Amino acid sequence: MTTQRMAAQGFSDQVSALVKALRAETPDCVAAGVVDMSTGMLLSYETVDTHPPEVLDLLAGATLDLFQGRTVILIEDVFKERRGVANDQHFFQEILVNSDNLTHLFIRMNHSQDVVAVAVCRKSVNVGMLFAQARRVVKEHSGI
User: Fold this and answer.
1) Which among 93, 108, 128, 140 counts the fewest CB atoms within 10 Å?
2) What is the pTM assigned to this prediction?
3) 115 and 36 in contact (C-beta within 8 Å)?
């Protein structure tokens, strides 16, 4: 097996482990996934329910819009200009979205700014515990 293929397999295993950990260790979690915003792909996911493939595909696009949509990039560029920041680091690192029945937490990976972990929980989740557990899991899998 080539080194490149072994590295790719290692990355795939890391992503799968992150999803499994989020799903198991985040309170009231009903789904977890990892999105690669550079390719627009949902890399891995686990859910307690079945969803149409087109909904899962839309999750990756929605994540990209949340973190790197045109208006978000404009806001980041204005802040960078005003603060004299010259790096490519993004300002938006975590986003919490509440829908009618669910709470969605999106966390950008520290070392791979284009990779976002997603935890979807029941609306009744303790948001403080959600953040604490999800952050801990993401930190433990920071090699992604």
Assistant:
1) 128
2) 0.87
3) yes
